[in-house]
Amino acid sequence: MIAVIGEALIDLVVDEAGAVVARPGGGPFNTARTLGRLGVETTFLGRLSGDRFGRTLRERLSADGVGLGVPTLAGRPSTLAVADLAPDGTVRYDFYLTGTASAALDYQVLAAALPRGVTAVHVGTLSLVMEPIASAIERLITEGLPRDALVMVDPNCRPAAIGDRDAYLDRFERILHRADVVKVSVEDLDYLCPGVPAEVAATTLLGDRPALVLVTDGPRPARAFLSGAFGGAGGEVSVEVPRVEVVDTIGAGDAFGGGFLAWWSGAGLGRKELSSAEPVRAALRAAAEVSALTCTRSGAEPPLLSELAGARGWSADVVGG
């Protein structure tokens, strides 16, 4: 059982002509859907609104086989992101967070909703900024999880939503002390460690105790930096990213993290194996396949397990039975 904690929101995608399309989104929401579509038992722990957008988000989770760990709906509007889509498929975001549903999750509710038998927890993105959910996540990660639960953190840094950079970095560092895997893009690393080469920034994050840092860089090779935790040798592995015709990159990073966790879980691997280069390389390749397929369609629409049948680097027998 994997628990994904954080926000679900609506992406208002604006194209060059000014047309607006509303699409379900949010980093944790997209990650949960990726896991569900890949056949992994998944629970989403986030607060949804009772408005029409909130009902849409709930329906989408259910359709993808994801359980809703916090079923009580908030009497607040759904969280919104305005996604400005460029011709090359890249996206710039503005956020509407204050007084919205995603923030309205405190520690008592979150801790009570954590599934029994949870084997891995994924957290990140805007939920590390909004209150009270940010404080609730920090407390859960640092003191409320089973010792053997694998923790993945994806900060997916959004400078436009971060009011106090120093406070944000302090919280992120505290969470890293319990994290096993950190998934970052090169843009995230530039925000976290300005002016520092990506490989140096990634190894700097390893100093806060994670076993593994995964780094994505668009169409360029995906890399994993191993710390040598659990008796491993440390080092770096990389894989090529499949070449695809990109429609847009919305949700690609979320699909990457979800793909990595899905493959890892499906292979029966846990925290200790994160120090072994070969399974990390295999999971990295699988994650790149999932992310690349997501880029071939509009919006955050991760692939189904059946769509990965025969894909290089992904064995359909590994995940989903």
In words, what does this structure look like?
By secondary structure, the protein is α/β, with parallel strands linked by helices. It has a single domain, classed as Ribokinase (UDP-N-acetylmuramoyl-L-alanine:D-glutamate ligase, 3-Layer(aba) Sandwich). 32% of the residues lie in helices and 21% in strands. The chain contains 9 helices and 13 strands. The strands form 2 sheets. A 9-stranded mixed β-sheet has the order 5-4-1-8-9-10-11-12-13, sandwiched between helices. The radius of gyration is 18 Å and the shape is globular.
What class would the helix/strand composition place it in? alpha/beta
User: Largest sheet, described in full?
Assistant: 9 strands, mixed
What is the CA–CA distance across the termini? 14 Å
Q: Could you give the count of β-strands? A: 13
CATH topology assignment: UDP-N-acetylmuramoyl-L-alanine:D-glutamate ligase
- Portion of residues within helices: 25-40%
Mean pLDDT: 91
Q: How many domains comprise the coordinates? A: 1
User: What's the CATH class, please?
Assistant: Alpha Beta
Question: What is the radius of gyration?
Answer: 18 Å
> Which of globular, elongated, flat, extended, rod-shaped describes the shape?
globular
| Name given to the CATH architecture | 3-Layer(aba) Sandwich
What do we call the CATH homologous superfamily? Ribokinase
Beta strand %: 15-25%
Could you spell the SSE succession in H and E letters?
EEEHEHEEEHEHEHEHHEEEHH
